[in-house]
Amino acid sequence: MPDYSELSRRRGRAAKADRQFAWLLVGLYPPRFRGDVGLAFVDALEDRMRARRDAGASALRARLAALADTLRNAPAEWIGSRGDRPAEPRQKGRPVIDKVMQDVRYALRLWRRRPGFALVAIVTLALGIGANTAMFTIVNAVLLRPLQYPHADRLVSIWGRTNAYPRGLLAYDEYEAIRAQTGTFEAAGLWFPQSVNLTGVDEPQRLVGSFVSGSFFDVLGLTAERGRLFTEDESAPGTVKPVVVLAHQTWQRRFNADPAAIGATMNLNGTALTIVGVLATPFDPDTVPADGYLSGIDVFIPAAQFPMPHGLRGAGPIMLGVGRLQPGITVARASADVEVLRHRIATEAAAQPQAIQTSGFVAQGGRTLTVESAQEGIVGSSRPALLLLFAAVGVVLLIACVNVSQLLLARAVDREKEIALRAALGASRTVVARQLTIEAALLAVVSAAAGLFVGRAALASLAWLRPPASVPIPASLGLDGTVLAFSGLVAIVVATLCGLAPAVKVARPDLGHVLQAGFRRASAPGRRTRDVFMVVEMALSVALVAVAALLIQSVVAVQRVPLGFDPSNVFTLQFRLPQSKYPTPPDIARFFKTTIERVRAVPGVESAALVRAVPLSGNGGTIGYTIIGKPPVDPKSLPQSYLHLVTPDYFRTMRIPVIKGRDFTDRDDLQSPLVAVINETFARKAFPGADALGQRITTPQTQGPITIVGIVGDSKHYAATEPQAPQLYAAHYQVPLIFSSLVARTRGPAMSVTQDVRKAIWSVDKDQPVWSVVSLEDIVSRTQGQSRFLAMLLAVFAAVALVLAGVGIYGVTSYGVAQRTHEIGIRLALGASGERVLREVVGRGAKLALAGAAIGVAVAVAMARFASAVLFAVRPTDPIALAAAVATLMIVSLAACYIPARRAARVDPVVALAEE
Amino acid sequence: MTIRSVEFHILLALAQEEKHGYAILQEVAAVTDDEIQLEPGTLYRALHRMLKDGWVVESARRPAADLDDERRRYYRLTPAGRKVAVGEAERLERLVTVARAHRLLSRA
After folding, report:
1. How many Å apart are CA A365 and CA A767, to the nearest integer?
2. Which of B5, B39, B68 to probe by mutation at the A interface, max A CB count within 10 Å?
């Protein structure tokens, strides 16, 4: 006997579920409809499900039936369709959506009939939209999106600005004063990334450490993922603690994410530091432009652990400043405030001569403090290049639109007879205009969707092209809401651009004209429109090609700049000695000497030397100097020179010619009087018309006079594009510092000696890590990376534009010729030569191309002004680039005209006239 | 005036008396020997359409309290709706006559 109570309970449960399901389904209908039919609708759905179950169907079956019913009816109710009741002829106010759907169906039918047309149009537009989507994704990620830190709008960099470095470093006492200025800054921190030696592991290794004040974490709103971060007290000189915070990836990679890492010690720069915590990464660092705060940093070390012989306080400006402004404080106001602070500190320091001795920065000519938005500091330099690329893809899209518009128009004109006839019979002309607009919109939507895929592929291939590190393109880019919104906007613009001209043209056909021409053949209306299209297309491509040509010229110019040294077959590496192991200058000098001797003995090494900063590596320094025997100058505005520390043989290794005097020798050491070698520019500027050899100078950083013993040729140091600067070479053995680089000229390929040189250094000190092991040629080519990358991208865009323009011109000309077949046939029949027809068609194209070129040159000059920030040694009006662009376009357009022109010349009069 | 078959069924169901939605559904099933099983979505959409076109209206009259459910809405034919139903019935009748003339149906 069945258990009825159980059955009814189960029924009750099922009924409740039915009820919920019915509510869910009703929710899928438009609210207006729900309001109109009332709650009984829910009951009906529910009752129907119960009835089905009572009739023996399973609950699932009953619900599936209800769902099917809803899916059949709810969407129709949403789009306002009235179902399949046949429309009545005189029925007014048919919903707009119906007409639109009808037009959409009509457009799709046309596409099916002529798939070639649809394919060309969609591919053309998808390329344009895709390129724009990709560029916008980059512009959005780099320039538009704020940094991913809390209160990013108030994050600022605090710079010590000098003539040589607009973005220079900050001294510790300045930082302390800034931190105390709580009216301006909510928080301020110091940081400075530097390589650190990790020892006590299998092989000595180099990590990238960031020496930071405890407040650095507060400024950026960073927190610990595990353990804790260190405090300001633990990082300050005097109270500093031997602690270290790991970056998340270091913890994972080096400690396999082992929680026991907290509390362990790491031997960094010869000091055992206790790991107190792991920094939580607040965002995916791959998706943002590299900011230096977190990207690439392995460990965070208290600022006062920074290896300086006299400690942080006496070291002068050696760290980077970051701050968070109080709400409402502007960058300009903060700049003024920090400058007041600097002035006060400098005045106080000047009152204590001792301070000048230890911190030489007071004497740096015209040094001021400034504040800059942090985002500007990180991405500002890439703005001109990115905007230029963005403008270029915009031009490509415009050309694509012109082409598609042209295609649509040609087809609309083909339908002109039909349209005119319908109009004459009383049909609304706007129907056709609407149909064209809808078709353009449909094209735009389909292309925008395809463009998203093209954009993704473009971004992927961009990563494949490996943008140089100086272009802050995030490693991975997502198509987020902003980008999708941008694509939508582009689609609307594209639809308007493509659909407008044809719609306007067709909505006002010249009835009488068309009907008079009768059904024999249509006239050739829209000729002027087509001419305008061609000129626009040509002008845009000339402009783009010209800008690309300018950039390519600029890249060539950069590569042709004489560097002053010979980068081929030079091997380089960098190292930093632990201060604790090499505490005094003689210790360091001894390491230098032995190392150079051992490296020289390596087979394949021709000569070797040490230099503190390898040219074009980004490292370097400047110094102010005074000439002994000349009237004294204000210590605040000393003449400046680059300062290089080199060992003997450096000039021979780099092939920098010694013009006068001598190179350094091993006898220029800690015991002998200070000597220096200068470059020609230094000699010319400091000793015009006099012999520089034997002259003596002093600098605030050194004690006693320095005698100039040699003059060498000029060379570039920071960039090939920099104006030649005065350079002062000091003897590295007289100023041995813990950070230096090795350069070695090799007989064979530079990198062939890598292993042996490493071993040679480890034979001197087995714990000494080396890094940046790279050939000088690679360093040089890397510095040219950005302009080369930019020129390459622009060249690609220009090529795409040219192809599109060529296709467009070809299409327009072919169409024009096809329309005139009849006329050409008559003329040929009356005795005109084919050659003459050909000349006429090509001549017409050439005339339009010239007009386009003239406009294009004007556009190019305007665009190139925009590009002047990324141009080197090339003026925006450079005639060669402009002429090359015009010539390229003329060739492309003549070729594009020639094919249809030849077809016109070969028209068979009999066939053409029989066509009626 | 064209009319869909679901609409004609609803008009037929409402010809004698006003009914609520679910009752219409049951009536249609009953008169067609369960051959036509209207789904609620189809029914209510059709009703919605017919209300707009003025073929049916919601009735203000309600049955006795013990039989009533306050959520139910009752629908009745308007004169226009009746005219549509009559027109459709006559059209069908004419068609049936033709069918008979062609000997598709045996004479009643």
Report:
1. 40
2. B39
pLDDT at A362: 39
Q: Find chain A residues with C-beta within 8 A of B22's C-beta.
A: 40, 43-44, 47-48
Q: Please report the pLDDT score of residue A519 as a whole number.
A: 44
Question: pTM for the whole thing?
Answer: 0.69
DSSP state letters, A414-482: HTHHHHHHHHHTT--THHHHHHHHHHHHHHHHHHHHHHHHHHHHHHHHHHHT---TTS---SS----HH
pLDDT above 70 coverage of chain A, percent = 88
Question: CB under 8 Å to A588, separation ≥6 — which residues?
Answer: A577, A582, A736, A737, A738
Domains and CATH numbers, chain B: 5-101 (1.10.10.10)
Q: What is the pLDDT of residue A563?
A: 92
- Shortest Cα distance, chain A CAs vs residue B108, angstroms: 33
Residues of chain B in contact with residue A86, where contact means CB-CB under 8 angstroms, are 2
Query: How far apart are the two ends of chain A, measured CA to CA in Å?
Result: 91
Q: What is the pLDDT of residues A800-859, one digit of tens each?
A: 888 888 888 888 888 888 878 888 888 888 888 888 888 888 888 889 889 999 999 988
Compute the distance between CA of residue A68 and CA of residue A659 in angstroms, rounded to an integer: 92
Q: In angstroms, what separates the C-alpha of B99 from chain A's closest C-alpha?
A: 24
What is the C-alpha separation between A744 and A604, in angstroms, rounded? 10
Contacting B with CB below 8 Å, chain A residues are 25, 29, 33, 36-41, 43-45, 47-48, 65-66, 68-70, 72-74, 76-77, 82-86, 88
* Partner-chain residue, chosen from B25, B49, B51, that has the shortest CB–CB distance to A83: B49
Show Cβ contacts of residue A671 under 8 Å, excluding neighbours closer than 6 positions.
Answer: none
> Which residues are A189's β-sheet partners?
A322
Question: CB–CB of A73 and B42 under 8 A?
Answer: yes
Q: What's the mean pLDDT in A853-879?
A: 84
pLDDT of residue A84: 43
CB within 8 A of A247, min separation 6: which ones? A278, A279, A281, A294, A297, A298, A299, A300
**Residue pLDDT, tens place only, B58-93:** 887 666 666 666 677 889 899 999 999 999 999 889
What the block records as the tokens of A166 is 């607009």
